[in-house]
Amino acid sequence: MIIKLKPHTNPSDKYRFIEYLTDLGLEFHFSENSEAERIQVMANGKNIPWKEIKSRPIVDEILDSSNIYSMVHRNYKPENTVIELPGVTIGDGIPIVIAGPCAVENEAQILEIAHLVRNQGVKIMRGGAFKPRTSPYSFAGLEEKGLKLLAKARQETGVLIVTEVLDTRDVELVAEYSDIMQIGSRNMQNYKLLKALGRIDKPLLLKRGMSARLEEFLGSAEHIMSEGNSQIILCERGIRTFVEYTRNTLDLNVVPVIKNESHLPIIVDPSHGTGRRDIIESMSLAALAAGADGIMIEVHPHPEKAWSDPEQALSPDQFSHLMNHVNDFIEWRKTHALSPTRL
């Protein structure tokens, strides 16, 4: 359940109320916003005196949080979560672009791409140093060497780095080199990894699982947030359906639904969502029109030579063409803000 405190609560009254909840043996988390504070109470099988709690003068109302993602829900935090990074804001209504290769291959490749995306105004570069692959014989990443190359690209160009972490044992290592840590679709329900990442102070990009339902997707974000980390960026990357003409089915329905249901920002990955470079631009613009907080695009100097997912990587010219249209749309969005509609 969620305890909503009355607006402008006196700090001393709040402190006494916290002591009261602690004396009851309850576990709880806080959310502070411009209206009031909300306290998420974990029942953990306890018989909680809700009637008594509700009668306390400090309490405005008690909200039901019976679903599995109560802290991720807008009832817990009505305002959008906004993630601030050096030179970049995610979730403030102005879409951002993340771009880069599927995998870090070598120094020349990653530095060329870093300069390419930075020259197009992109401030966050993606690049995989650890690559989960369907085949055990496919290139699986340069690991720490790849992380060091990403760090060099950041130092040389100023781009921020988002890269994937696969294992709890690598959390500290990846955190050292990255600005945003990515949780891939295969790990969306790796709860030990989610909880470990929930205990660090670093923005996280959580990709939707290949067949994940909405409540499972947001439930994974809840696992992270319940450990204390609310810097979560959701990412729609396509789901597996009967459709055979694209790699996945890019579920853009989920964007406005999540904007209505949750306070967390959501971006879209049309590269993995389609697997076809010829429709990435169309689906990128469609994602932004649906209200996405950004898009994540794969780009490579020579797509046909890419070591991973060459079919969905844009060439420099194709990426430049895409960015021209995306920038036009972003300018339009600055004067036509989209906001969730509660039904």
3D architecture notes:
The chain is of the alpha/beta class and 343 residues long. The chain folds into two domains: 2-63, Alpha-Beta Plaits (2-Layer Sandwich), CATH 3.30.70.1140; 83-335, Aldolase class I (TIM Barrel, Alpha-Beta Barrel), CATH 3.20.20. Helices cover 34% and strands 18% of the residues. The protein contains eleven helices and 14 strands. The protein has helices at residues 11-23, 50-54, 107-119, 144-157, 171-177, 191-198, 214-225, 254-261, 270-274, 277-289, 316-335, and strands spanning 2-5, 27-32, 37-42, 59-63, 83-85, 88-90, 96-100, 124-126, 160-164, 180-183, 204-207, 232-236, 266-268, 294-298. An eight-stranded parallel sheet has the order 13-12-11-10-9-8-7-14. Strand 10, helix 6 and strand 11 form a beta-alpha-beta unit. Helix 3 runs parallel beside helix 4 (144-157).
**CATH level 3 topology of the largest domain:** TIM Barrel
CATH architecture type of the largest domain? Alpha-Beta Barrel
Kindly state the percentage of residues in helix.
25-40%
The major β-sheet equals: 8 strands, parallel
Indicate the structural class. Answer: alpha/beta
N to C succession of SSEs? EHEEHEEEEHEHEHEHEHEHEHHEH
Instruction: Tell me the distance between the termini.
Output: 21 Å
> Which oligomeric form is depicted?
single chain
- Tell me, what's the shape? elongated
Number of domains: 2
Low-confidence stretches: none
Cα Rg: 21 Å
Specify the CATH class of the largest domain. Alpha Beta
CATH superfamily of the largest domain: Aldolase class I
Beta strand count? 14
Across the major sheet, the strand order is 13-12-11-10-9-8-7-14
Question: What amount of the residues lies in strands?
Answer: 15-25%
Number of contiguous helices: 11
Can you give the mean pLDDT?
90
